[in-house]
Each structure stands twice: as C-alpha cells, then as structure tokens.
Design brief:
The complex is a heterodimer of chains A (297) and B (244). Chain A is of the alpha/beta class. Chain A is built from 10 helices and 14 strands. In chain B, 78% of the residues lie in helices and 0% in strands. Chain B has one domain. The longest helix of chain B has 29 residues. By secondary structure, chain B is mainly alpha-helical. The chains are: A alpha/beta (297), B mainly alpha (244).
C-alpha cells in the first residue's frame, strides 16, 4: 500500500537552519509513519534539538519543508495532532499535576483522562500535590503525561527517561510500545541505546546537521551482519596483523562480517586463543562500525 | 477561544495568587507610595487629584511593570516554550494576562482609594468613581500592552532595568508625582505626548467633573494600538535557539 503525505506522521525534506554564523542543521530528511517509533541519534551539538524544534514548529526552517499528517508543522492542525514534553525542571511550582493536565487537555479540546494518565505514569500519590518539592523523577513523570494528555497521533520526546528510576523507565517503555502498537507515532532522542532498541523500530543518525544514516533497525542489522569475536591470548602474545584485532583492556576483540572464515584461518594458523565468544554487535557499536566503514577512504 | 481563555486564566491566576511573595508587594506598593507622598497633599480637589494620580500610577506599576515586562522572563522559560507547542493562538494568553492585570490593578487601586478615605477628605459622586474606574480600565490595557511590547523585545536579564528606565520617567512625565503645572515648560511640552499624561488628564477630568478631551482619548488609543502592533510583530516569529 502506498502512503500519501497526509498518511505520514512526519514527512520532512531538506530541513536547514542557521543561527548566526552557526549552521545548526544543513540537511535533514525524515519520514515517520503511524505506528512507528523513530530514535533520533547523534552526539551533543549534532543538530537533534534543532531538528526537534523545527518539527514541533518552535522555529522555522531556513530551507526545506516538514509536514505532520500533511499539515505544515506549527500549523493549528499539526499542533492538535502533536504532543511534546516540557523540560521537567520547569513546571510551575504552584500548580498540581491534575491542574496542569486539565489545562493542557482544555488547550487540546479533549476531556482530561486523569485516571488513565495517573495509572500510566505512576502519579497516584502526586496528582493533587503542588509541584514544588517534587523530585526530578516525579517532575519527569508529570512532563511525560503532559505529552500524551491531548490524545496526540504523534509525540516528540526529548530524553524521556532522564532522571527516572529503573522501574519508572521500564513502565514508560511498556507504555510507549503500547502507544505505538495502537498506531501512534513517536520521535524520541535518548542517550540510552537500550531504550532506543526497546522502543524504536527505526533510527535516524544525525551528524553535523545532516541525516547520515536512517532506516529500520532490523533492516540495518540485516544489511550489516557484524559479529564481535572476543578471545584471550597467552600473556605477551600479539595477534597477527591480518586479524585486525584490538585489545579493549581486558580481551582481544575483532568485528567481522564473516566470522566462519576468520575462525577457520585462526585455527589453521594455530593461533593459541582461548575463551572464545561470538556475539552480534549492539546497535551503538553497529552504527559506529557502519559510519567508520563509510568514512574509510 | 472561550475554553482556551478560561484555561489560560485559570492557570495564570492559580500561579499568581499562590505566590504571596508576588501579589502582596504588587498590591501594596502603590498604596505605600501614596501614603508617603500623595495623601498629604491637602484637601478638596487637590486630594482627589492626588488620589487619581496614584490610582493611575498603580495601574502603570501593576500593568506595565509586573504583568507586561514579566513576558520577557516567561519567554526565556522552557515551560512557555512547551505552551507554544500546544494548539491555539497566543491571543488568549495575552487576554488572560490582561484580565489578571485588571484584577491586581483593581486590588491596588482599591487600596489607594481606601487610604484616601482614611487619610483625606475625598468625597466624590458615584459618577466620578465610575469614570475613574473606566480610566483605570483603559489605562490597564495600554500599560499592560506597552509592557508586553517591551518584554517581547528585551532579554529576560535586560527587561527589568529597561522597564525601570521607561516606567519611572513615564510616571514623572505624566504628572503622576508632580502636577504638570509645576513642571518646567520644556518637560511639560514632552509630557503632553506621553501615554501617562493622557491617563492622568482623563483621571483628573473625572475627578473635576470635566468632559474627557478627544485629544487625550486619541493619544491613549494611539499608544494602545502602537503597543498592540509592536506586540503582534515581535511575538509572531518564534526564533528561539534550541539548546544543544
């Protein structure tokens, strides 16, 4: 089935943004479908926050175009379909979660589903307490609930579990997966790679303001079936150069797309290795590997 | 629009009234200045005019300084950034801010009037009180919009000193502290073009039972429109730089 622009949660093409002398984003292309969770990855200053700001309609791109379900970002129709978290540390001290959730629901023109949000985000003991004195994790739970109060079809989450304890992180992942399974679209940034893998079906890697790698995680894994071999060698013995191994401080490691051939040669050449382990690369290392391969002259 | 406005007003009033550290000084300050400098201006018409001057000064202080200029601080807050991702235009937020300003102005002006009754022989017909209330209402709109306009272009750090630089001279130039008749001729010539002079003239006319002059009404309307236009122009394009 072919999707049209109005079916896509996000269709962004050639987004660019400059702040004075700094080219924060030079070319971003993104497509997010309903029922898809996209992880936006990149180092600090890569352009993730600027990209999110443009997608949320907080700053206008200098070039390019972005649509939310066919509506220009920042338009009234796009805002009605979109949810986002405020920075958790900045909620007004004087109001309670119930009051601020009710306020946001009124802005969206929906009935505030306080009971459901209280259950989903563990707000039972907090819902009628003023925000002043909340811990960072408690504030973050309220902030996350605010992203979902308007029954949005697309949600932007910037470091959603920062400050949450592990139980709350786990609960959030369950809730996020359920939202996506019901057809919601998610765009999130996170420094937790396990969180990206647990929630997202796709990733987009941003580097120096450009999308350098994008696609479904399973497709990327299929495209590069890289295995990491770990082994020990007798003290003082250095592996031959053809192996391309490096020592990580504890063990020798090799990343390869053809572990069978490599292992056969290690055996044929009588390399005295021990404690061999083979494991697929974690997403973080896989992306690092792919980027390294791309940049190789 | 009504639903959005009630949401904004509810949130704004909750935040403000639950901060005694904000609203008590805001309401008390004009009355305190009036008690020190305005209530001893004799009796009769002088006392009524001094009371009206400090009522207008209360409007300026609360509307321009406390509500308008605080836009600069709000603009720098991430919570305000999140609010701007929600559906709906910024207009109900401005209206809620002006209504909140009217409520606080009413309290501040009421305190000035109560002090005038306690400390002077002010005795006015109901019509004069009604006209003074109307002037305060008009002046609240103008003062708050002027403050919002200034708060929209100034940074959070610069807004308060910049506001002091505008608000205190405007109070003096408008004749709210010193009657225009006691001003040097050059200052008086400038005074006649200020919004505070127009507010003062309208308030004094109400106290003396004179008709409002079209020139003063026109001047106040022109300042209001200019402030509204500047607010519209400066708040429309969002050019916030995201954090890294």
């Amino acid at each position: 089935m072919t999707m049209t622009q109005s079916d896509l949660a996000i269709h962004a093409h050639g987004l660019a943004k400059r702040f004075g002398a700094v080219q924060a984003v030079s070319r971003i292309d993104l497509v997010v479908a309903p029922g898809e969770a996209l992880g936006l990855l990149g180092s600090n200053g890569a352009g993730k926050s600027t990209t999110l700001s443009m997608l949320m309609g907080l700053c206008a791109p200098d070039a390019g175009k972005a649509l939310v379900f066919g509506h220009p970002v920042g338009s009234p129709a796009a805002r009605r379909l979109t949810g986002a978290t405020p920075q958790a540390t900045d909620l007004p001290d004087q109001v309670t979660p119930r009051e601020i959730l009710t306020y946001a629901a009124l802005r969206y023109g929906v009935a505030p589903a306080i009971d459901r949000l209280t259950a989903d985000f563990g707000l039972d003991d907090l819902i009628d307490r003023r925000v002043a004195g909340f811990s960072g994790g408690q504030m973050r739970r309220v902030a996350l609930a605010l992203a979902f109060v308007g029954q949005p079809r697309l949600v932007f989450l910037d470091e959603p579990t920062s400050g949450l304890d592990s139980a709350a992180q786990q609960a959030f992942r369950v809730m996020a997966r359920s939202y996506v399974a019901q057809g919601g679209a998610l765009v999130l940034t996170s420094h937790h790679w396990d969180e990206i893998e647990a929630i997202c079906s796709s990733i987009a890697v941003i580097d120096r303001g450009e999308t350098v790698l994008a696609g479904r995680i399973d497709t990327i894994r299929d495209r590069a079936r890289i295995t990491r071999l770990g082994f020990d060698l007798p003290p003082g013995l250095v592996p031959p150069l053809w192996l391309g191994a490096r020592h990580d401080g504890a063990r020798w490691q090799v990343e390869t797309g053809d572990s069978d051939t490599l292992l056969r040669r290690m055996v044929t050449e009588a390399l005295p290795f021990a404690n061999l382990t083979l494991q697929p690369l974690e997403l973080k290392d896989l992306i690092h590997h792919l980027r390294h391969e791309e940049n190789r002259p | 629009m009504t639903r959005h406005l009630s949401a904004e007003l509810g949130l704004t009033l909750r935040i403000l009234f639950r901060q005694p550290g904000f609203w008590i000084p805001t309401v008390l300050f004009p009355a305190m200045l009036y008690a020190f400098f305005g209530a001893n201006s004799g009796g009769g018409a002088w006392a009524a005019n001094a009371m009206a001057s400090f009522a207008v000064y209360a409007v300026l202080g609360v509307g321009f300084f406390q509500f308008g200029v605080s836009v600069a601080q709000d603009r720098a807050s991430p919570f305000a950034t999140w609010q701007s991702t929600l559906p709906g235009s910024a207009v109900p937020q401005w209206i809620a801010r002006i209504i909140a300003a009217v409520i606080f102005v009413t309290l501040a002006v009421a305190l000035v009037i109560a002090l005038a009754h306690l400390m002077t022989d002010v005795d006015l017909p109901a019509r004069a009180w009604g006209r003074l209330a109307a002037v305060c209402l008009m002046a609240t709109g103008t003062a708050t919009l002027m403050g919002i306009a200034l708060g929209s272009v100034a940074s959070a750090r610069a807004a308060v000193p910049l506001a002091n630089l505008v608000y205190l001279p405007l109070a003096y130039l408008g004749g709210l502290w010193v009657p225009p008749i006691a001003m040097p001729a050059a200052i008086n010539a400038i005074s006649e073009w200020t919004p505070t002079r127009a507010m003062g003239e309208l308030a004094w006319a109400a106290m003396e039972g004179r008709a409002w002059s079209l020139q003063d009404l026109g001047l106040l309307a022109a300042w209001t429109l200019a402030a509204a236009a500047m607010t519209g122009l400066t708040t429309r394009p969002l050019r916030r730089r995201p954090s890294a």
